[in-house]
Structures are given as C-alpha cells and as structure tokens.
Specification:
The protein is mostly helical. It has eight helices and three strands. A hairpin with a 7-residue loop joins strand 2 and strand 3. Helix 3 packs across helix 6.
C-alpha cells in the first residue's frame, strides 16, 4: 500500500477529488493546500524552496500557498536559525490535525482498494498506475515543448 500512497502524494493524483469523505476538508483548504500539509507531515519542517521542489511548483506559487495556510493557522513560517534569509515552514497543531485526518482518509481509501483486490491484482494495479503516471509526466500537453526541458519531474520509484 505504501507505493500507492507515495504515488498519490508525489504525482499529483488527488484522491480528494472523488471521495465524499473529503468534502468537509475541501471547504477548509484546497487540494494543493492538503498536499502541502501532507508533505510537511511526512518530511517535517522544510525550507520554502525545498517545499516548492517537493510539490513540483514554482517558488512563487508555493509562497501563495504558504501565505494562505499561514493565514488560516495551519503552518508557521520563520527564519532559519542557521541562515536568516531562509524561511522554514512548520505545521501548527491545527495543521498537523488536518494533515493527519487527510492521511487517515487516504489510508482508508487504500485499505478499501486492498480489500477489493487480490495481492496479485494489487501488484498489477500499482504497476499500471506507475506506468500511467510516467506516461502522463512525459506527455503533459499543457507544457509547451520549449518549456519541458525546464520542468522538474518527480521520479517515481518502482
């Protein structure tokens, strides 16, 4: 199940889009916000540039997300003790609770998938999802060909 969870988190597949259990979460924050909170939950405190890289987003977009989350009280940003120019992003207690709730919903969804499929089917399903994710990463029509060389891809491990 962990490869599926990683796939969902790292490739931008958003289970929140089709789960009714997440409707109340999406009234509080966007899907990008939830992804940001989950990354902070798993990775711990991060720099803004590190978080942007992990999200596969430009720093300017990450800054907008961080401002929104900070205003809602889900994260705190502070200067690094080692380098005052570097901003560290930290989950607040409220942000941690929301991220943990999101994690439980995803884990529940994955458990339902695991119960519906045999171990062999689950292995095939995971392999097919990884293959589809790779194809979609390589053939994103929204990115002009001249920009594709600049795009940061998230490597999906098998």
């Amino acid at each position: 199940m962990q490869p599926l969870f990683d796939l969902i988190l790292k490739t931008g597949l958003r289970p929140f889009a089709f789960l009714t259990e997440t409707a109340h979460l999406e009234q509080k924050v966007t899907r990008s916000d939830l992804s940001t909170l989950l990354i902070l939950l798993f990775r711990g405190d991060m720099t803004m540039s590190g978080l942007a890289a992990e999200m596969g987003a430009p720093l300017s977009s990450m800054t907008s997300i961080a401002k929104r989350l900070e205003q809602k009280g889900y994260i705190a940003r502070a200067a690094s003790a080692q380098d005052q120019r570097v901003k560290l992003v930290t989950l607040t207690q409220e942000g941690r609770q929301l991220a943990e709730e999101s994690q439980r919903i995803i884990q529940s969804m994955l458990s339902q998938i695991g119960e519906a499929l045999s171990p062999e089917e689950l292995e095939q399903f995971t392999a097919l999802l990884l293959k589809v994710a790779r194809v979609l990463q390589d053939h994103d029509p929204s990115i002009p060909p001249e920009k594709k060389a600049e795009t940061r891809k998230i490597i999906i491990e098998e």
